[in-house]
Amino acid sequence: MLQQTQVVRVIPKYQAWLRRWPTARALALASLADVMKLWTGLGYNRRAKMLRDAARLVVEQHGGRWPTNIVTLPTLPGFGPYTAAAVAVFSGRVRATMIDTNVRRVIGRWFFGIRHVPPNRIERAAEDVLPATKADEWHHALMDLGATVCLPRPKCELCPVRDLCDAYPQILTIKPKRRTPVTRFIDSQRYVRGRIMARLTRGSMRRSDLILELRMKYELPNERTKRAITSLINDGLLVRSGARVRLNS
Q1: Any idea which fold 101-173 has?
Q2: How far apart, in Å, are the Cα atoms of 201 and each of 32, 79, 174?
Q3: pLDDT digit string (tens) for 98-128?
Q4: Whether the model pTM is above 0.90
């Protein structure tokens, strides 16, 4: 839920989600329409469907209990290396490395200073310093350090490990890169896909009527809506039956 979504927007959705579907068995029985209604506003709708599909697989193959094995987790829909490691570390208390943007920045600066190094070297360095126990607390600390102190524009004066950091103090002399202009959300295909999914939670409709409604209500060009419908069908989120489109079950 937190992927490119503000925490303040996620918290009420997360709480509502757990109230509605507190277990894998409960989520496995949910319709895609109900899942999408609750997910509306978070974006990346494929994640909601994959989470529901993962719950069904957990019920079918794991007795309704979410696995915490670092080998088993990647077999679930939507569980890539990072998500699998995160669940294993924080839910299963498994000793494993978990590399997100913040951890990569902290480890990279700590061991390699201001030099650019390939990801596999950062991963090996992270494994070398991984403590024997409490991997969850270790990763919480690294993530918090990267999110609050070891920022793209670092606050080295606040860093508790700056004297051990290979990037300090040279990093303070480097001019920050100019930020790349960010596309407005309203101009993205994510926005169009979200409007389509939200509308179809109320039931199926003719494709032409859907395109017309989104043009009238949100001033979306027909071609943007058509492309979004096609991509949602390709992602397995929508089904087209003749002239009508609906949410996949």
Answers
A1: Endonuclease Iii, domain 2 (1.10.1670)
A2: 8, 25, 50
A3: 999 999 999 999 999 999 999 999 999 999 9
A4: no
